[in-house]
Amino acid sequence: MTRRSHPDVVVVGGGIVGAACAWYLAAEGLAVLVLDAGFPGGGATGAGMGHLVVMDETEAQFALTSYSLELWTALANELSADCQDEPRSTLWIAADEEELALVEAKAEFYHRRGVAAEVLSSSELAGEEPELRPGLAGALHVPGDRVIYPPAAARWLLDRAVEKGAAVQTDCRVEEIGSGWVRTARGEKISCDLVVNAAGPEAPRLTSGLPVEPRKGHLAITERYPEFCRHQLVELGYLKSTHTEAADSVAFNIQPRATGQQLIGSSRELVGWDLSINRRLLAAMIRRAFDYLPRLAELQVIRVWTGFRPATPDGLPLIGPWPAIDGLWIAAGHEGLGITMALGTGRLLAECMVGRQPSLDPAPYEPARLES
Amino acid sequence: MAETLKTEVTVVGAGPAGIAAACRAAESGARVLLLDENPRAGGQIWRGTRCGRGPAGARRWLARLSDSSARLVDTTAVVDTDGDGGLLVERRGEALVVEGERLIVASGARELFLPFPGWTLPNVLGVGGGQALLKSGVSFRGRKIVIAGSGPLLLPVAAALATSGAHLRLVAEQAPAHRVHGFALSCWRYPGKLIEATRYRAAFLATAYRTGVWAVAARGDDRVEEVVLTDGHRSWTEPCDYLLASYGLVPNLELPRLLGCAVDNDRVTVDDHQLTTVDDVYCAGEPTGIGGLELALVEGEIAGLAAAGRDREETALAGRRRRLERFAAALAHAFAPRQELAERVEVDTTICRCEDVAWKQLHPAGSFRQAKLATRVGMGPCQGRVCGPALALLRGWEADRVRPPLRVSTLGVLASRSKGPAGH
After folding, report:
1. What is the number of domains present in chain B?
2. CATH code of residue A274
3. pLDDT at B55
4. In this complex, do B410 and A300 lie within 8 Å of one another by their Cβ atoms?
5. What is the 3 state secondary structure string of chain B?
6. How far off is chain B from A324, nearest CA to CA, in Å?
């Protein structure tokens, strides 16, 4: 099955999205070759939080996140231990009565679509998370969400693809993608039938006109404090006032890791390909977390890093054919939801590529929607 | 919001290089803040020096420092840059911002540890770590000690342990005899160093000093009980209560790298004035290349003068620096870790103590960053300070990007920002 000379499909990018695409494509019986510029999971995947979360900004976002979460949950018993997969419910925190009204609307949205969610009162919230400051209005508890260690999950998916006959080439940077071929940095031209551009933030470098740009985010991780938080905690304003704007923004988001460490986000800024740490934004991000968890200030922090999220203008990923180049398919632009959406993306893309009835309506994700 | 200290020259590290830099800059009329993580100036090498105690050179420099206008900000760790040219530092749990017009990095060095089976057992220490314990008042009287390391530090540590009543069983130098002897012969240019070495050796004459011998394993249940040694042909065991096993020094390059200074072959690149590739940032002492006390002092003096705008007065020091650099190069050549030290690891040997990562787990990885993401090696509280240099030798991996905080600190400190000038 493994064919490097003329594979059916070349997947450019061995991050979690490329890995998932490779797995589903190989499962369809296609000969798949994955090319990664460095090592799998070393890009945006390795910089992410690994929160597997159902989101409800739009119907399309909900459809892809909830479907992906079903697929992740079904894999729970198969994933290797280093994937650190575990159920980790999310608490969407409402700071005041105004936000609590949004919590109720959010609960209603989930209930109508069959996703378990319950509204917690102020005191119930305090009981669940004693470290939260008093006086918060309440929260939405979403029990089905999970947490995973993304680079290990990407490797696991690639290993499954390899079992189904895929080949993986690391340290192989692709310089150009054409119709039925890719050219590597070493000058090698690999011909194939189909190409998937799953290069994350690098995707527009290879497909000009692709509306994806790198959005930088900061994360900080503490030493081990098991039980400091029990749930993934996210401020409700995460969606509304902050990350949808083009300007720099921060929002409270904390995740207890399987190691007992607390992983703190989040920030978003559009500064091009600059990975340097923005100290002002980092401080603002951490202080935002203190607004919710005052004792967090006393915890020891061991590392801060940044990463790029591949962002699109409408906040939805690009999954589907790229009209300008025959045989080129896109799986990119997932911004901060690439880990969650990876499985749904891979499955949907594979179904469309082989002409099978898709599990989801692909229209909202088609790259052509954003062509100007 | 953090208090801001403003100054002309900030010196990071109050070891010999930093002390010399601070003295020279302050004596030239500059306002100087000298930051150090310890409660007292002196660094690792002059730890424990007080009035009337310690080597004469140390006492002289410490007296000169206290007579100068340089202000020592003790118990202070650099956490990060503040993003605006200043340093975010932690002092007794509080954040401070230090804004200097010019910065001298004299961040010193730490011991090089190379993993071997049993190296993580209690009472297996670094050679310098053993010395520090002794200086801090720990008694080794009657305890069986084996030193199996490398470099000139073995001699004073052996001498001090023997003098303190320890039962020193063996001093093993990993470097081969011909290199050590060749180095000793070349020392005729530096008679002071030969006299010093002879004096140290005289203090532990009852114990063998063997070249070309190294430890291959430490064994014991709750702590080290014996060490397996080899000369490359034959192996034997020595019982011991303590094993001191480290292999010279590695420079502390985290701060210069975070600041963006060019580093080549584990040395911060500096010009004749000790100026790095970053404007207004100077570097002196071990981070510009392991060179020992005297070179650190000369480099510190030059950096201090340069940072205070007295470049011309450096000329007299430049010749000494050149001579000492030759000595440092000879030293590095003589005591370079032998290849066999990298061959001791076994599949189950711990590489990263913080995250408990074994050698076998690292195998598929091709870079430090890949190994980190796959195994968590180097991602614990020591931030790769121990396993990073070891893996550079064992696997040829370059250091990964430096990420703040430079020292584990609280989120409260890291999130502190300047609240404007408070003066100095």
Report:
1. 2
2. 3.30.9.10
3. 82
4. yes
5. CEEEEEEEEEEECCCHHHHHHHHHHHHCCCCEEEECCCCCCCCCCCCCCECCECCHHHHHHHHHHHHCCCEEECCEEEEEECCCCCEEEEECCEEEEEEEEEEEECCCEEECCCCCCCCCCCCEECHHHHHHHHHCCCCCCCCEEEEEECCCCHHHHHHHHHHCCCEEEEEEECCCHHHHHHHHHHHHHCHHHHHHHHHHHHCCCCCEEEECCEEEEEECCCCCCEEEEECCCCEEEEECCEEECCCCEEECCHHHHHHCCCEECCEECCCCCCECCCCCEEECCHHHCCCCHHHHHHHHHHHHHHHCCCHHHHHHHHHHHHHHHHHHHHHHHHCCCCHHHHHCCCCCCEEECCCCEEHHHHCCCCCHHHHHHHHCCCCCCCCCCCHHHHHHHHHCCCCCCCCCCCCCEEHHHHCCCEEEECCC
6. 35
